[in-house]
Specification:
This protein has eleven helices and six strands. By secondary structure, the protein is an alpha+beta fold. It has two domains: 219 residues, no CATH class; 89 residues, no CATH class. α1 runs antiparallel to α2 and α7 runs antiparallel to α8. The radius of gyration is 28 Å and the shape is elongated.
Length: 366
């Protein structure tokens, strides 16, 4: 090593990073295997009834499901890995030796934070790109070999299909791609200038148009009105059947770019899905920060020898980790069912526990 040259990470740092990542990999693989075994036990009858090939079950379903479990349980098991490694270093007095050698507590945190950033970036890639792609294939497998076709029982659907147009159907049946009691209103300066109604509207997959049965078209121009009626005609409402299938709307199959486009489209349509979409977007973007926050909490809790040893560190740390997850769920519910801003609902738990992490760092031995 050249004189005067310093490295961002030295041999000790790489040793700690290796221990953390190896422990995390082993822990997450074990929990995924356990979850898969339990899930298989619950679904195996359906797989047998639908004659699902073993190869498809393994490679077209559970292989595509594994990244979801990594992303779901990653925070907790990475935190456990940090506490485990730090507690082992503390028990062997290695933390005391590091600090006694004149290395600051902040410098000692570097390999831990680096590990958290690596896993966080990986989680960012999983949630925004890889998992949505895998979910498409997973749902296709479920459609063929597991779940029954869903029947939409949604009533009173309102959709803004253009800046000046509003569509309404009393009920939409996804099995036949048809709606009952259809209405489309066209506005000009907040006044209705055209109103189209039909008892039934059906989607024609060949022409990509909608067929109206028993329809009427009312055109309004000031005090003058024109009324036209008919029994069968086509109309282009710039919507497809999936736009009416609100309960079939799956956010987790959208990658980051698709999610942004969907948010823009749903805002224009005026649906109530915008909050859920924004919540999903901010969760994907900000949740990786939880790896860093939990790492700071885990190291601060575990770097001091305690009478309870590793068990006490794990119990205290897991309690805080579950508290963070609980607060995340509460704020997410407040955004979905209340008036809380989606960005604030995702950021607030991270901000609160950042203060907890800061307080623990101040209290940690130096």
């Amino acid at each position: 090593m050249k004189k005067g040259r310093t490295y961002f990470l030295n041999r000790l740092d790489w040793y700690i990073i290796g221990k953390i990542l190896a422990t995390f990999a082993i822990a997450i693989i074990l929990i995924i295997l356990i979850i898969i075994i339990i899930d298989l036990g619950q679904k195996i009858d359906d797989f047998i009834d639908h004659k699902a090939p073993i190869k498809a079950v393994i490679f077209d379903y559970y292989l595509y499901t594994a990244p979801y479990y990594v992303n779901t349980f990653g925070h907790l098991f990475f935190f456990i890995s940090v506490v485990f490694v730090t507690s082992r270093l503390t028990a062997r007095s290695e933390i005391i030796s590091i600090l006694s050698a004149g290395i600051s507590f902040g410098r000692m945190l570097r390999p831990f934070i680096f590990s958290a950033v690596v896993v966080g970036v990986f989680g960012l890639y999983l949630s925004n790109f890889l998992i949505p792609q895998f979910n498409v294939k997973k749902y296709e497998f479920e459609r063929l070999y597991y779940r029954n076709t869903y029947v939409n029982m949604q009533f009173n659907i309102h959709i803004q299909n253009a800046p000046n147009k509003q569509v309404y159907v009393q009920r939409f049946d996804n099995a036949t791609n048809s709606g009952v009691l259809f209405t489309q209103e066209t506005f000009n300066k907040n006044k209705v200038v055209e109103k189209i109604t039909a008892n039934i509207i059906r989607y024609d997959s060949v022409s990509k148009m909608w067929i109206m049965d028993d329809y009427s078209i009312r055109t309004i121009n000031g005090k003058n009105e024109k009324l036209a009626k008919g029994y069968n005609d086509t109309i282009d409402i710039h919507l497809t059947p999936k736009d009416f299938n609100m309960k079939l709307f799956k956010v987790d199959v959208l990658d980051f770019q698709q999610l942004n486009k969907t948010i823009t489209r749903e805002r224009m349509k005026g649906t109530n899905k915008v909050t859920d979409l924004l919540l999903e977007k901010y969760t994907r973007l900000l949740n990786p920060l939880a790896y860093i926050i939990l790492t700071l909490i885990g190291v601060s809790l575990s770097c001091k020898k305690k009478r309870g040893g590793m068990g006490l560190n794990l119990a205290s740390g897991i309690g805080l980790a579950f508290a963070l997850i609980l607060v995340m769920k509460i704020t997410a519910t407040s955004a979905t069912n209340g008036n809380m801003n989606p960005l604030l609902s995702v950021a607030l738990p991270l901000i609160l526990f950042s203060f907890v992490a800061g307080w623990l760092i101040i209290k940690a031995p130096k």
